[in-house]
Design brief:
Blueprint: H1 3-14, E1 17-19, H2 22-25, H3 39-49, E2 52-57, E3 61-66, E4 73-79, E5 90-92, E6 98-100, E7 106-110, E8 116-120, E9 127-130, E10 141-143, E11 164-166, E12 172-174, H4 190-193, E13 200-201, E14 211-212, E15 221-224, E16 227-228, E17 233-234, E18 239-240, E19 249-253, E20 268-272, E21 282-287, E22 291-301, E23 304-313, H5 321-331, H6 335-342, E24 348-366, E25 370-391, E26 394-416, E27 421-440, E28 445-465, E29 470-490, E30 494-515, E31 520-531, E32 536-548, E33 553-564, E34 566-569, E35 583-586, E36 595-608, E37 611-626, E38 642-658, E39 661-675, E40 683-685, E41 692-702, E42 705-714, E43 718-719, E44 742-743, E45 747-759, E46 765-773, E47 781-788, E48 795-801, E49 806-814
Parallel strand pairs: 1-3, 4-10, 15-20
Antiparallel strand pairs: 2-3, 4-7, 5-6, 5-8, 8-9, 11-12, 12-19, 13-14, 15-16, 17-18, 19-20, 21-22, 21-49, 22-23, 23-24, 24-25, 25-26, 26-27, 27-28, 28-29, 29-30, 30-31, 31-32, 32-33, 33-36, 34-35, 36-37, 37-38, 38-39, 39-40, 39-41, 41-42, 42-45, 43-44, 45-46, 46-49, 47-48
């Protein structure tokens, strides 16, 4: 059959086009190939029967030329790491010609003037090949490396409010820049927001007294860009020190935290202000009835930027209704107010209070693999109170100064060696000071109390991605903490200064398996601490396991063992004027033990049709606590002994979203008991036990308008009542019933907040917000204790109350 007719039949059958010159095929006749053969088999057959070569380009175009004049060919086999051929790998030539490999991974093309070509395939790292490096006579094997992309954890968005989500590892994640609104909040304050999460409370409404599953505030680890923060509140706890307009991501772990987090027996709050993606230049400024702030970010180049924020109280200039309510809440039943109550004849007072915080970030990329980031933060609160009174022609006055400040810095370096390996190293320092200076004219006395902390260290972490499901981390951490406590009194003279230093080394290994197909997430880690001073090793295993029973139901198991070497204690309730009476100390491994915790929780998570149900059962035990760390104001106030607390309970969240409306209800039950084996009452309720806590919120968001109304209700915290049957009224000495034998009244509060945002034609954005705490102006009792009055020589009950109705208004401009 004429050769030309054969190739015309092949063109019709296989939808290809032959390119040839008539001279090469003129007069050529052969037996045609079988019609059942494949295109490649037919071309191979034709090549054997003739003196012709056939170049197949992408099974579309076939060039025919005589073998004697055949051009130099480039060929090869594209192979995967498991030595299996990669079919349909894309071959791209410099002239933009493209074709694919066959089932054997084979390809070929005419060399001509081509110097390079690129091989690519979905799921593999593209490879650029220099033609000169290939053997044109033999077809080499070319291996492609798998392209591994770590899968982002699936999150259930809009838990409690937009901008809050829950990760597969059980942690809650807050994105302040995407934050919607919560009752009573008009700004995404990290520490106020976390109190909406079931299991997180503050019994005295303070962000400096956050209790997570029955723990004290100091048992939580607060990190700002890797810096441990020892001060978390402005205005002595009513405002978070973390600028709400700065943070990019806030991660909160109640249990099952990473092995890279140490020095905590309760929760972990990790705040990062580093953007995940490049952002444009921006500037914003705002003011509310407590403080004003500014924020600016400027890109110095394509690879570097600087970010600055600053915030300062406006109490130097004006005393707003919000400030007055805060002031009354903070200073009730302290030595500041005791002065006026006990000496109220011709009483005069002059108060100055202010706070500020500022941050600086500098980020620089070096090449395509390295990045250096510098973070600095400074925080300060300062109170000056001068009080005087004339009693029986005798002038009594006090000049009091209370200062609290925290400075921190972190320098981090990150290198991406390749798509599988990353190394991070950071050096950090945190310095904290609490200073009280009291001068009294009567008796010419002066008293100074000071608590300082200096914490520094280094963290090294390596991350390895083994494949799309497995990753592995290992690291080393060194931490040094030094704490100094000073007490100095004149007339009579007394001086005591104690400094303790503790150095800890930690080795960490952690592995993660994440299979989105089988819906299994498993992360396990081990942290080995070595404490130099005590020559002591402490092992801290961690585990996170999540299994998707179905598309709607997820089961989660979290567990951890952790330890902590530093804590806050109270020597006397009137220390530091009774305002910030806690001071940091270091464990001595005897009378002040190393605190150790064990925690396990089982969680069932359901999400379908805009319904969300989250039920978590937990058990937690913390050993090594001291009575002085628990804030007793009963017969245990001056008892020094050690023990533990044990808490178990259930946390439940039910949420429903209907278009722009979101409503949720949460309930927490827990039973929390102390165990002090050397005390006459070895077991009794924990000071921070709230047996029942209920919260409800209704949130409406449409376009730029947001409004939230909510209420919080809890059973009263435990208290100890006096045993009046044993007290002689003529010579009163306090006798108590069993510790925490009864409870305060129920706590109930209704809050509301609303924001509105609009933008002008020139791109300037404005935002106004208003909130009211305790709308019903309910007088909630948050603590109660008893003392003998120095004026009447009788037993009196001292009550502390929560905030009364407190309004706040904010205004912000963003460019």
């Amino acid at each position: 059959m004429p050769f030309k007719k054969i190739i015309l039949d092949i063109e019709k059958q296989h939808d290809v086009n032959f390119n040839y010159t008539e001279d090469n095929i003129a007069g050529l006749e052969i037996n045609p190939p079988k019609r059942s053969l494949s295109l490649e088999q037919k071309l191979e057959y034709l090549g054997k029967k003739t003196n012709l070569s056939f170049e197949n380009i992408g099974n579309k175009f076939i060039n025919i030329y005589k073998k004697d004049n055949a051009p130099e060919m480039i060929c090869g086999y594209v192979i995967a790491a498991d030595k299996k051929p990669i079919e349909n790998a894309n071959i791209s030539l410099p002239d933009k010609t493209q074709f694919t490999t066959d089932s054997e991974g084979y390809f070929e093309f005419i060399k001509e003037d081509k110097t390079t070509f690129t091989i690519s395939h979905v799921g593999f790292v593209s490879k650029r090949i220099a033609v000169g490096n290939l053997d044109s006579k033999n077809c080499p094997q070319i291996f492609l490396e798998p392209e591994i992309t770590e899968l982002h954890e699936i999150k259930a968005n809009a838990i409690l409010a937009s901008g809050i989500s829950k990760n597969n590892d059980g942690s809650f994640e807050i994105k302040p820049k995407k934050f919607g609104i919560l009752p009573g909040l008009i700004e995404p304050d990290a520490l106020q927001t976390m109190q909406q999460i079931p299991g997180v409370n503050s019994l005295d409404e303070s962000v400096s007294s956050i209790n997570v599953r029955g723990g004290t505030h100091d048992q939580n680890l607060f990190l700002w860009n890797g810096i441990r923060m020892f001060q978390t509140g402005h205005f002595f706890g009513l405002i978070s020190v973390f600028n709400p307009n700065l943070a990019h991501t806030i991660s909160i772990y109640k249990n099952g935290s990473s092995a890279f987090y140490g020095e905590s027996v309760s929760s972990v709050v990790a705040i990062s202000s580093t953007a995940e993606t490049a952002e444009k230049n921006s500037f914003s400024a705002g003011i509310n009835m407590i403080n004003a702030d500014v924020y600016a970010k400027y890109n110095l180049s394509k690879k570097s930027y600087i970010e600055i924020s600053a915030r300062k109280s406006i109490t130097d200039f004006v005393e707003t209704p919000t400030y007055k309510e805060y002031f009354n809440k903070v200073f009730q039943n302290t030595t500041i107010t005791d002065f006026s109550q006990n000496q109220n004849v011709n009483y005069q007072s002059d108060k100055k209070f202010g706070f500020y915080d500022a941050t600086l970030k500098y980020a620089q990329k070096i090449g395509s693999k390295d990045q250096i980031v510098l973070d600095l933060i400074t925080i300060k609160d300062n109170l000056e109170v001068f009080q005087s009174a004339t009693v029986y022609n005798t002038i009594k006055s006090e000049d009091n100064v209370l200062r609290q400040q925290n400075y921190g810095g972190n320098l981090s370096w990150r290198r991406n060696w390749n798509s599988f390996n990353t190394t991070k190293i950071n050096f950090y320092n945190s310095s904290y000071e609490l200073l009280a200076n009291q001068k009294m004219t009567l008796g010419d006395q002066a008293a100074i109390q000071e608590n300082t902390v200096n914490n520094n260290g280094i963290n090294l972490e390596n991350n390895h991605i083994l494949n799309s499901k497995f990753s592995f981390n290992e690291g080393y951490q060194f931490n040094e903490i030094g704490i100094t406590n000073l007490e100095q009194v004149t007339n009579p003279d007394f001086y005591r200064r104690v400094k303790d230093v503790l150095r800890t080394h930690a080795l960490i290994v952690e592995g993660k398996y994440n299979d989105t197909i089988s819906k299994i997430y498993f992360k396990a880690g081990m942290r080995i601490n070595y404490i130099e001073k005590f020559k002591k090793y402490i092992a801290e295993p961690r585990i996170q396991l999540a299994y998707g029973i179905s598309k709607s139901v997820n089961l989660e198991l979290l567990g951890e063992i952790k330890s902590q070497n530093s804590q806050q204690i109270i020597d006397l309730q009137k220390d530091y004027f009774g305002i910030e009476k806690r001071r940091w100390i270091i464990s001595n491994n005897t009378t002040i033990p190393i605190q150790k915790s064990r925690q396990l929780s089982l969680n069932l998570f359901y999400k379908k049709n805009n319904w969300l149900i989250d039920i978590e059962n937990f058990y937690k035990k913390v050993n090594g606590i001291t009575t002085s760390s628990q804030g007793f104001q009963n017969q245990l106030e001056f008892v020094r002994t050690t023990g533990d607390y044990e808490v178990w309970g259930t946390e439940m969240l039910i949420q429903k979203k209907i278009n722009q409306f979101l409503t949720w209800f949460s309930y927490t039950y827990n039973e929390n008991n102390y165990h002090f084996p050397n005390y006459e009452y070895p077991t009794f309720p924990n000071n921070f036990e709230l047996t029942h806590t209920l919260s409800w919120a209704g949130i409406y968001e449409k376009n730029n308008f947001k409004i939230a109304l909510g209420t919080k209700w809890s059973s009263g915290r435990p208290k100890t009542s006096p045993d009046f049957a044993q007290i002689d009224p003529s010579d009163p000495v306090l006798f108590y019933n069993r510790p925490n034998n009864t409870n305060l009244h129920i706590f109930s509060q209704v809050n509301i907040s609303s924001t509105y945002k609009w933008e002008t034609s020139n791109g300037i954005q404005y935002k106004i917000g208003i909130s009211i705490l305790n709308i019903l102006n309910r007088k909630n009792e948050i603590s109660e204790y008893y003392r003998i009055s120095s004026l009447t020589n009788s037993i009196e009950e001292v009550d502390t109350f929560s905030l009364q109705r407190t309004p706040n208004v904010s205004f912000r401009v963003s460019l």
